[in-house]
Amino acid sequence: MARILLVDAYSQIFRLFHAIPPLSNGQGTPTNALYGMARLLLQLDKEFPAEYGALVFDCGKCVRRTALLPQYKAQRPPMPEELRCQVPRIRRWAQAFGWRLLEREGFEADDLLAAIAARREGTPVTILTADKDLGQLVQDGQVQILKPEKGGRWQTLGEREIQEKHGVPPCQLRDFLALLGDTADNIPGIPGCGPKTAARLLQQWGSIDALLEHLEEMPEGKLKASLRENRERLLQNRDLVQLDDTPPEGWEGLETLRRHAPDWPLLEALCQEEGIHAFDEELRKHSLPRQLTLGF
User: Fold this and answer.
1) Cα angle at 206 between 202 and 211, to 5 degrees?
2) Exposed/middle/buried for 77, CB within 10 Å: 0-12, 13-18, 19+?
3) Residue 101: helix, strand or coil by DSSP?
4) What is the mean pLDDT of the chain?
5) What is the pTM of this model?
6) What angle do CA 143, 148, 153 make, to 5 degrees?
7) Tell me, what's the pLDDT at 286?
8) Confidence class for position 293, pLDDT limits 50, 70, 90
9) Which residues of 84-123 are buried (b: 16+ CB within 10 A; e: fewer)?
């Protein structure tokens, strides 16, 4: 059965940039993130060959979320120049591996991933990401999350794993995250509402709308006062966490994601260009002529 494999590109690029010590080629140009992504793409080609797939990128500031909350992600430092110079080369390598590159100006990768999941045409989707927001999309047998672990292992997150991790199912994760906020995105949570409290409230009431509708039925105390005082913040947080399923530019259905066979000669040439000789040898072992396997 065909399957779609999607990579939350910057999630993986940043992870590998920080995980791998500084490396550079003969020209002194940094290569650590490039090397890490090249190894990741080869591993995916070996272990998860897929007929459809794309690397999905953020592109500029998120217009919708910044309009709702001007300080959204404002605390994040700019991308280090040592990484910025590697991104165009990573994109070139990904295309040589046969991946599509998708982005839309003013949109985040999360939203484009949600858009693809909504338009999967009955084809199961696996998303390689470390972003907890994307747990909202998980549906057993339809959409799952793939997380890399140490030692080259993988963790697959379905509905059960999301429930075990957060105490709520995927369908309640948006409201759960709205209660908690997100320091990484500069979204303030509801004071006095930690993960256990947020899960308990949703287990009892089912949704933020129901919680606020029955707020006066709650016993008096700091939590009730905090929810009452921060009602508008909570609703705004929900809008911020909500994924936007506007499709990427040039979307023409599932064929937009059809992968090409890797261009092994070009990849070997890129290895030589970047001076990544150890990877070149590994690449040669894997680059025997073959066709992409349908499914995983």
Assistant:
1) 75
2) exposed
3) strand
4) 92
5) 0.92
6) 110
7) 78
8) very low
9) eebbebbbebbbbbbbbbbbbeebbbbbbbbbbbebbeeb
Altogether, the residues listed in the chain come to a count of 296
pLDDT value at position 149?
86
Per DSSP, which regions of 158-294 are E strands?
A: none
Task: Give Cβ neighbours of residue 218 (< 8 Å, ≥ 6 apart).
Answer: 224, 227
User: For residue range 72-93, what is the model confidence (pLDDT) as tens digits?
Assistant: 999 999 999 999 999 999 999 9
Closest CA to 41 of 294, 293, 288, 279: 279
**pLDDT score recorded for residue 258:** 96
pLDDT at 250: 86
Classify 231 as helix, strand or coil. Answer: helix
Residue 5, burial from CB neighbour count under 10 angstroms (0-12, 13-18, 19+): buried
CA-to-CA dists, residue 118 to 23, 82, 101, 216, 243, angstroms: 39, 36, 18, 37, 11
Q: Tokens in use for 211?
A: 């919680």
pLDDT at 1: 59
Residue type, 108: E
Per-residue pLDDT for 215 more than 90? yes
DSSP H helices, 214-295, are 222-229, 231-241, 264-274, 277-286
Write the CB contacts of 138 (distance below 8 Å, at least 6 apart in sequence).
Answer: 144, 145, 157, 158, 159, 162, 170
Q: Determine if residue 6 is left, alpha or beta; phi over 0 gives left, psi from -120 to 50 gives alpha, anything else beta.
A: beta
Cβ(89)–Cβ(274) under 8 Å?
Answer: yes
- Assigned token pair, 103: 């982005």
